[in-house]
Description:
This protein has 193 residues and is of the alpha+beta class. The chain has one domain (36-176): tt1808, chain A, CATH 3.90.1570. Helices cover 20% and strands 33% of the residues. The protein contains three helices and twelve strands; from the N terminus they run H-E-E-H-E-E-E-E-E-H-E-E-E-E-E. The protein has helices spanning 3-14, 39-51, 110-123; strands at 22-27, 30-35, 57-60, 64-66, 78-82, 92-94, 98-104, 128-133, 138-146, 153-161, 166-168, 174-176. The longest helix is centred in the middle third of the chain and has 14 residues, at 110-123. The model has no long low-confidence stretch (mean pLDDT 86). GO terms for molecular function: endonuclease activity.
Amino acid sequence: xxxxxxxxxxxxxxxxELFGHYKIELLRGNIVMMAGPDWVHNxxxxxxxxxxxGGRWHRVQTQDVAIPGESSEPQPDLVVVEKGAFKxxxxxxxxxxxxxxxxxxxxxxxEADYVTKRSMYAAGQIPAxxxxxxxxxxxxxxxxxxxxxxxxxxxxxLKTKFGAPLALDVLGGFELNTSEFGTxxxxxxxxxx
Length: 193
């Protein structure tokens, strides 16, 4: 991270009111700022959050994650941490404490969600990464992370169409109901997995 990046992050931390409608992340040394998500996006995140049992799990939206060995502080749409794995304080949860990172794809986040964050979360050894894509009406669950840096990836991929249940074994056999996830009109975008 450069000195300019560090100063910008200090400004974000000290004056959140200036950036309240934007999502700001540090991804591999680059500060990325996006407009706030739309209604469909937020309802999907809320549905996932509400379905995951709270007894064993903290289900937290917009929580920054520290990826070891990376100049990255991504902010997944939802972070699932087993209670007791991280006690805080601080705005950064260490990636090894995260059990599941969830991203809901938006028009501006396609490449970040499918490519950049995939390798970042794998490099951070986050056991499961769930990409929910309302444009394609599907979920992509990635498990078994391996490798380091930009070459890191997940060994196992499971694609599920909206409407089919999705087994999240990493959460103790929990099954996610995707039948009420909203969709968005398809947009032209680069070919991704």
